[in-house]
Amino acid sequence: MDHKEVRRYWDENAENWTRLARAGYDVYRDYLNTPAFFAMLPDVKGLSGLDIGCGEGYNTRLLAETGARVTAIDISEVFVRHAKQLAEPGIANIDYQVASAVELPFAEATFDFATGFMSFMDIAETGAVLGESYRVLKPGGFLQFSITHPCFDTPHRRNLRDDKGLTYAIEVGGYFDNRQGDIAEWLFSSAPRQVKEGLPKFKIPIFTRTISQWLNLLIETGFQLEQVAEPRPSDQVVAECPNIQDAQVVAYFLHIRARKPIHGIVSSRKSN
Ligand SMILES: C[S@@+](CC[C@H](N)C(=O)[O-])C[C@H]1O[C@@H](n2cnc3c(N)ncnc32)[C@H](O)[C@@H]1O
User: Fold this and answer.
1) Is the pTM value of this prediction over 0.70?
2) pLDDT at 30 (0 to 100)
3) What is the pLDDT, as a whole number, of residue 211?
């Protein structure tokens, strides 16, 4: 399955995803991933950035609020339409465009930084995404992205719970399977049953890479690894949002920042 076929799935998910996320049911994003991502992000005030796979624009808006000038792309026209509806001219400085991360419509060395919030693992052509990110960055610019953790978001995953219903372990398997577009079906687990009733499940094409594949692709592309994080919610955050207690047991997400060296390699890799 390639990125053009993946687009169809995300266009179909986008309407309900936007509605549920804006209603507050994307709790791993709101309570864990987004705060951790911004805590790791260097100061981008006044810089020009590209947000890759922006979805309905929640994180893009936060990025613009930090003072960056942001261009944001997503392969799904429906997501970009929703994102544009919430853009406030003059407040959030965001230029939204429909485009694929695999073929970025920007010249080499256009941006000071690039971000990918939970989008890179949804794209089959991992090498091309990293290559394109590298190409459009200015020398010295950085890429920061978050993905589901390759070691713990595996094709087989089961929460093992104690008699109070608390997760104490995660059973994982199929780590080396290299999935190429199997469809996972789910809705946000924290949305109440009456909200989910009658809604079709999201259909998400799954592509898995091992942690060494991710790191080696970054290195082969020419990036220098700068910082890595595996966010874990504090007890206080879990008290506010008990649904994410399982994210205290293992790392569900991996955040990586990598830099294009000032004297980097000229052409980056384009293959998987
Ligand atoms: C899990 S959502 C994350 C959305 C958003 N960044 C957020 O944090 O809420 C993954 C996003 O990646 C987008 N996507 C998938 N393949 C893409 C591609 N080839 N180019 C650009 N965006 C893509 C999807 O349309 C979707 O909006």
Assistant:
1) yes
2) 96
3) 97
For residue 10, report the distance from its CA to the centre of ligand 1, in Å: 8
Q: Calculate how far, in angstroms, residue 119's C-alpha sits from the geometric centre of ligand 1.
A: 4
- Tell me the pLDDT tens digit for each residue of 11-39: 999 999 999 999 999 999 999 999 999 99
Average pLDDT on 210-233 reads 97
The Å distance, Cα 58 to ligand 1 centre, comes to: 12
- Residues 6 or more apart whose CB falls under 8 angstroms from that of 216 comprise none
To test the pocket of ligand 1, the residue of 75, 130, 188, 272 to mutate (highest count of ligand atoms within 8 Å of its CB) is 75
pLDDT at 212: 98
Residue located nearest, by CA, to atom 26 of ligand 1: 55
Q: Ligand 1 pocket, 63 CB below 6 A?
A: no
- State which amino acid sits at residue 33: N
Nearest to 154 by CA among 13, 229, 250, 227: 250
Could you tell me if the CB of 118 is within 6 A of ligand 1?
A: yes
Between helix 77-86 and helix 3-22 the angle, nearest 10°, is: 40
Query: Which residue's alpha carbon is at the smallest distance from atom 8 of ligand 1?
Result: 117
Q: State if residue 146 touches ligand 1 by the CB under 6 angstroms criterion.
A: no
Concatenating the DSSP letter of every residue in 218-236 gives: HHHHT-EEEEEE-----HH
Per-residue CA distances from 102 to 62, 105, 116, 150 (Å): 24, 10, 13, 21
Find, among 138, 141, 144, 134, the residue nearest to 268 by Cα: 134
